[in-house]
């Protein structure tokens, strides 16, 4: 596989709704990661947010990967949401367990809760400086004060720039661009943050988490500016990571394919191996 122009992926690699599209129609779930990594070159590793995978599970992930693939695992919520940030034994075990995947690791995601406020920036700085060298990290904040372009946001950005750690860009504008039309959309609107989008690269690997509606006729308006921003970052020598979400995630492989196709003029581009399912809207 040739090197793609940037890293593009989905919030998961295992979804039976993708049979007959991203996956062969009769694919076994134990082969989903192999098929997924044959098309996309990165994935959000949400599973580690909830529990540490077993050694055999991690080894099976490694065995399924196609060359050039990168996991972006989330730090466990017991560390990011369970109290004060600390480089604890649990975190050391986390790194040890994933060590076999080191060559296939993109930036780790440190997702902080909305309650993590500017008064805790010194704590965040101490924590980030204590993390092991040789890895990349990206921080996602959700407290509204970090999105006001005031002193608190500038202090956060300076901290991340000083440490060459990226700030995750969370874009949910498309999701909230119309009233919910089904239960999946209502659930997503109830759970996902609705915050301003500040497209900033504080490190080498800018990371975008785009939460759309799963309908390109609605999502495209918000994706076109990201096409321009990714090109800008690529021209500056950065390596962006872009993750595509939707309320059900059923449609995201084809939505990501459409987004990817808009970069086919760039060196290293290659087509994604995804087929349209017969029961999906023919909008591509």
Structure explained in plain terms:
This protein has a single domain, classed as Protein of unknown function UPF0759 (TIM Barrel, Alpha-Beta Barrel). Helix content is 34%, strand content 12%. The chain contains 10 helices and 9 strands. It has helices spanning 32-39, 47-50, 55-64, 77-80, 89-97, 121-130, 151-163, 183-191, 216-235, 252-261, and strands spanning 7-10, 42-45, 70-73, 108-111, 137-140, 166-167, 169-171, 207-211, 241-245. The strands form 2 sheets. A 6-stranded parallel sheet has the order 3-2-1-9-8-7.
Brief synopsis:
With 284 residues, the chain is an alpha/beta fold.
Beta-strand level of the residues, as a percent range?
5-15%
What low-confidence regions span 5 or more consecutive residues with pLDDT below 50? Answer: 278-284
Which geometry do the CA atoms define?
globular
- CATH top level is Alpha Beta
| Sheet with the most strands, sense and barrel status | 6 strands, parallel
Within CATH, the superfamily carries the name Protein of unknown function UPF0759
For the largest sheet, list the strands in their spatial order: 3-2-1-9-8-7
Distance between the termini: 24 Å
Secondary-structure map:
Layout: E1 7-10, H1 32-39, E2 42-45, H2 47-50, H3 55-64, E3 70-73, H4 77-80, H5 89-97, E4 108-111, H6 121-130, E5 137-140, H7 151-163, E6 166-167, E7 169-171, H8 183-191, E8 207-211, H9 216-235, E9 241-245, H10 252-261
Parallel strand pairs: 1-2, 1-9, 2-3, 4-5, 5-6, 7-8, 8-9
């Amino acid at each position: 596989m040739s090197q793609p122009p940037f890293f593009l992926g989905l919030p998961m690699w295992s979804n039976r709704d993708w049979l007959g599209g991203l996956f062969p129609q009769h694919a076994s779930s134990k082969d989903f990661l192999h098929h997924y990594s044959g098309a996309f070159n990165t994935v959000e590793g949400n599973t580690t947010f909830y529990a540490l995978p077993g050694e055999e599970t991690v080894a099976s992930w490694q065995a399924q990967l196609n060359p050039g693939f990168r996991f972006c695992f989330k730090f466990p919520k017991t560390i990011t949401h369970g109290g004060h940030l600390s480089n604890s034994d649990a975190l050391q075990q986390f790194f040890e367990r994933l060590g076999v995947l080191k060559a296939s690791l993109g930036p780790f995601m440190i997702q902080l809760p909305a309650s993590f406020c500017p008064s805790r920036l010194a704590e965040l700085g101490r924590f980030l400086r204590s993390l092991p060298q040789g890895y990349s990290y990206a921080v996602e904040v959700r407290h509204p004060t970090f999105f006001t372009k005031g002193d608190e946001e500038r202090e956060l950005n300076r901290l991340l720039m000083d440490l060459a750690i990226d700030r995750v860009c969370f874009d949910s504008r498309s999701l909230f661009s119309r009233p919910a039309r089904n239960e999946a959309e209502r659930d997503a609107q109830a759970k996902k943050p609705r915050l301003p989008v500040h497209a900033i690269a504080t490190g080498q690997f800018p990371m975008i988490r785009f939460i759309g509606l799963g309908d390109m006729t609605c999502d495209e308006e918000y994706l076109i500016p990201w096409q321009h921003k990714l090109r800008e970052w690529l021209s500056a020598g950065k390596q962006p990571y872009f993750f595509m979400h939707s309320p059900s995630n059923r449609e995201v492989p084809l939505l990501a394919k459409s987004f990817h196709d808009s970069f086919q003029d760039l060196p290293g581009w290659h087509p994604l191996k995804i087929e349209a399912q017969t029961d999906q809207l023919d909008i591509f």
